[in-house]
Amino acid sequence: MLLFGQFRFDPERLALYHGQTSISMRPKVSQLLEYFLTHPNQLIKREHLLKSLWQHGEFREAALNQSITELRQVLQDNAKSPIYIKTLPHQGYMWICAVKSDSSNKRRLGVKAAIGLVVISLLGGVYSYKSASIPPAQIQGQVPLLIHPMQNHTGVQANAWWGYALEGTLRERLKTSFKLIPKSQTPDYLNKPEKAQPQQLFLSIKPMQQRYLLQASMAGRHTQVLVEQLDNNFIEIADKLLGTLTTNTALSATKLNEINGLSDYFRGIQALNERGPRLAKSYFEAALTQTPEHLPSRLELARIAWGQGNIQLAKHYFDGIDLKTAPYTLQARYHLYLGTFQKALGEFQQARLSAKNALVMAEQSQHIELMASTYQLMADVAWSTLQWQDYTHAMSAAHALIGSRSFAYSEAQRSFYLANPPAAGPQQKNLVNLSQSKKVLEGAIQYYRQSEQRIELARSLFAYGQNYLVPVSESESSLLEALEIANESGEQYFKMQVLTYLGFYYIQLHQGEKALYYLDQVSLEQAFKPALEQLGLLKAMAHMDIGLTTDRHSALKTAQQLFESLLSIETTSDMARANVTLLLGWIALKQGETDKSQMLTNAALEAYEVGGLSDAMIYAKYTQMYIYLLRNEPDNALKLMDLEQDKEAHLMLFYASVAAHMTSDELLFAKAQGMLGKLNNSQSLLDQLEQFKQQPQGDAKLIAELLDAPYSVYCQSKWILE
Predict the structure, then answer these.
(1) What element of type H or E holds 120?
(2) pLDDT surpasses 90 at 495
(3) DSSP label of 413
(4) Do 713 and 720 touch, CB atoms closer than 8 A?
(5) Mean pLDDT in the chain?
(6) CA dihedral of residues 465, 468, 474, 476 (deg, nearest 10)
(7) What is the reported pTM?
């Protein structure tokens, strides 16, 4: 056991303790800590760390930076005034804290146990995995390679399955010699300058005298193979191609067994990518009928079943999968699919454990895409359970693996604000770059429009429509196109997600009736508790919006009843309870019940503070400011204002300007008004200020008539309405 500061580190188990508490870290972070502890007071160059810990990984530099950051966070070390890790500019790092070896557990420093127990402590809790039977992770080559989907020129779309099978075989053969770029990253690489693009393998097939001619090219080499028929011969064909294209390249020796149903499985994969689960389901069922032990088909059927709302069938398929002899990649996908299913059911503890299992297997296979997807699942679970530090760590890890694309999809879907606070909010706003994500999604949409992959196009359109930097006219058409594709494909759960977001989208535009049109189309199984909770909240918000914008008392009453019903449900999340409490405060404010509104707003503010929802706290704060203005108590309103912290909140600056004018504080008025004027979409508020300055002071009715109320916007005017 190694002792330093207030910590203990077990090198054999790669476990860190503070007192009796085990501290969670990613395996790579644990390995980094061990390296530092075994080389104290030495200059450690970045090249040495990369060579020792990231010799063959992708994104090595970014991964090292992220791991250093995570280790400092775990140790609560400050880079500017370090206690443990000192950065030596342009040189490297140095461990500057004294390290002692516990005499009760002597061992030679730097020696790792070859077998035994590997402790993976991720996102809270410790997960133990017996590693004696697990061989070292397969090392990928250093030359990046992009394998393009086969161009099918046979004139028969059904023949495209063979291209999926051939591509899968080629990936299996080449994975030890090249750094294979995940298929989903193809749009990203094609948008790079030609000099920055990786090696590329192109495939095409066309009919030729009752046969087929397969052509392939890579790195200036070209070859072609005559194919008699499109069946399981893709294994033999792949080896012929590579024998010509990859001279002196060591290929994977993995044996791909020719089994019954393999062609149906790849037909299912093709259908899943191009047409959706409705068509794919029959192919996977056919493959499973011929070969009941074919685990990939069973796994895809499990995912399709719950995506179509058949919970019991999904559990049946998951339970029927025996992972004892399954390769690491398949095990990782199993745990990832299961964890995503569990998250949809609201079983967050189980989903967290599944994500940990998925990460262990993904790291064993060095499958970058699976690792990133697993971290994104971890982030989703952490978000749902208000574990902001875990959320930040998981999304940072995903970003280190696949860059801005990790935010392009996941973070766009967290722009629900009150219904689901934005990712830019509770923790470290600098992590989210929706501007970069917008560019990534634009490239993906352009790429998928030129391919047959309709489902990927729909998901890209959905994320693009949710990015609040996209103009309203574009986001609306993107969301509606995503809905059309989802409806055609049979992706029922995905369709419900799009419909739900469309409801929220129109609420933002104060079109409550249109929002209800889409929300009323959502039909969810009762088991999907988080989605049902969100649906209930948005329906209530739609009725509230109708009441607020049309003065229809009946709509406000309906909204109030729906909100109170959510509060009465025992399983309603803390996040939803806080939001509902604030929204009830807005209804009370609209009805002139300022005392009741203040009580509810105070309760919401406390709940947001406890949950660490710093962005959502602003809603409660500026609602209280407005109440103080109505009561002619501008001094109390100003006590809530922090010009530095709230400099991007339109209504906070607006109400601060009003309060400053009411107190005749000209200096503060000029500063707050100037800050407001620098924000986009602030002109109407500035016009109201000028009009307010011309009126007599102290009239609550005048304030209510002239000034935008807190419920005039649901997202702090951050949407760019162009």
Answers:
(1) strand 117-120
(2) yes
(3) G
(4) no
(5) 80
(6) 60
(7) 0.70
